[in-house]
Amino acid sequence: MGSSAEMKGKNVTADEKETYFTKNLTALVVDDSKMHRMIHKKLLATLGVESQEAENGKEAVDICLSGKAFNLILMDYDMPVMDGREATKLLRENGVNTMILGITARSREWEREEFMAAGLNDCQEKPLTRAKLLSALQEVDAKLSS
Amino acid sequence: MALDLLKQQRDGLIFSMYNEVFAAVDLCVLFHFVALGLLDQQFDQLLALQDADSPGFIEEVIKLFCQESERTLGELSKHLSQPVVDYTKIDAYVHQLKGSSASVGAQLVKLACMNFRQACEENDKEGCMLALNMINNEYYRIRSKFETMIQLEQRILAYSTKHQ
């Protein structure tokens, strides 16, 4: 678990992956809920995206600042030790320019704006669906290809 | 044949969870008498994620949902019984539960959490306790159905493995 988490993404064959993305993509799933990490990693795996997980914002910051690079970070808002806002802010302050997608159960507009202001690229309300994830990944893929 | 029957039972149970109407009175008022099932379409997304690589995926997700929900419900109850209630802390717990229930498609639990939040924002302890009671009711109702679903899943898996 956490920084030692294995990289997985074997649900989609190489040929199938071509239909979604032109590049091999990787993601970091940050959530204190084991259930959410499991669902989000599985969603990513079905799209052929390798993923690693972190249980809180601090763990995510440590992984990214250790030199590990990702194409997408899925960031929860409410977490112990360090929440999603603080982690996102720290990542941006340290020059991490990976696409960060906030995933939160909070639905108030001001909460979303506050989270976005920390440096998110986008913010989505839970549940994370395949369509929302695919859209974010296609945006990442398009930027990498341009 | 036995496997087909087990699958029919499981599918029938899931179908009933989409269609049984359990909306409590205040939820009906809040959501204009919209008839709601225990589950919404998000559960379909989870079902679609279960494949040959992870035949126990749904079971594992449901077990984690129950573990995490019961821990959160315990925390909510504990914090609400304090003489001075920390509404910020309670709000964070309610959001955890709302997020988890939304992610498994447990829409009545999710709606009960939204009701709780309203009371929480008004620092209304009595309203929070009533809302917590409603969350508990909805949670234990869906847990009971999930337990039956897991039993059926386990029998299907055992039967499939035995006859491979």
TrEMBL record, chain A:
InterPro entries: CheY-like_superfamily, Sig_transdc_resp-reg_receiver, ST_Response_Regulator. Residues 26-141 form the Response regulatory domain. The modification 4-aspartylphosphate is found at residue 76. GO terms for biological process: phosphorelay signal transduction system. Keywords: Phosphoprotein. SUPFAM superfamilies: CheY-like. Gene3D superfamilies: 3.40.50.2300. Transmembrane segments: none annotated. This is Response regulatory domain-containing protein. It comes from Stephania japonica.
From TrEMBL, chain B:
GO terms for cellular component: cytosol; nucleus. InterPro entries: AHP1-5/YPD1, HPT_dom_sf, Sig_transdc_His_kin_Hpt_dom. GO terms for biological process: cytokinin-activated signaling pathway; phosphorelay signal transduction system. It is found in: Cytoplasm, Cytosol; Nucleus. Its main location: cytoplasm. GO terms for molecular function: histidine phosphotransfer kinase activity; protein histidine kinase binding. The chain crosses the membrane at residues 21-39. It comes from the Eukaryota. The modification Phosphohistidine is found at residue 95. SUPFAM superfamilies: Histidine-containing phosphotransfer domain, HPT domain. Keywords: Cytokinin signaling pathway, Cytoplasm, Membrane, Nucleus, Phosphoprotein, Transmembrane, Transmembrane helix, Two-component regulatory system. Residues 54-149 form the HPt domain. Functions as a two-component phosphorelay mediators between cytokinin sensor histidine kinases and response regulators (B-type ARRs). Plays an important role in propagating cytokinin signal transduction. Histidine-containing phosphotransfer domain (HPt) contains an active histidine that mediates the phosphotransfer. This is Histidine-containing phosphotransfer protein. It comes from Stephania japonica.
